[in-house]
Amino acid sequence: MTEIINQKHYDLEERTFKFAKRVRQFIKKLPKNLNNYEDSSQLVRASGSVGANYIEANESISKKDFILRIKISRKEAKESRYWLELVDINNNSNLEIERKELINESTELMKIFSAIMRKCQ
C-alpha cells in the first residue's frame, strides 16, 4: 500500500522514529516522582506506537488496513501530546522549551496523518 502515499514514506518513518527517541531522551531529564513515572510510561508507549503503526500501514494488505493504521498513528500522536502536557517539569525552563518542541512535533505528525487519511478516502 506504499503507493497510496508519496515516495517519501521512509522520511516519515525516520521522523516518527526520531520523535520517539527524542521523547525518551526528554523523559530521562524529568524529575523523578510517582506522577512522572506513570505518565512517562504512557508517553513512551504512545510515542513509539506512532511510528510502529506507520510502518504497519506501509506493509498493509489492503487500503482499509492502511487507513486504519494511519488513523491509529494519528491517535497515538494525539495521545503523546496529551502525556507531554501532563508530565511534571517542576518549572524548569529548559524542559519547558523541549516539551513545547515535542508537543509541536506531535501536532505536526497529527496533521500529516490527517492529510494522508483525507487523500486516501
From TrEMBL:
SUPFAM superfamilies, A to Z: IVS-encoded protein-like
Gene3D superfamilies: 23S rRNA-intervening sequence
Origin: domain of life: Bacteria
One Pfam short name: 23S_rRNA_IVP
Organism: Candidatus Roizmanbacteria bacterium CG23_combo_of_CG06-09_8_20_14_all_35_49
Protein name: Four helix bundle protein
InterPro entries listed in its UniProt record: 23S_rRNA-intervening_sequence, 23S_rRNA_IVS_sf
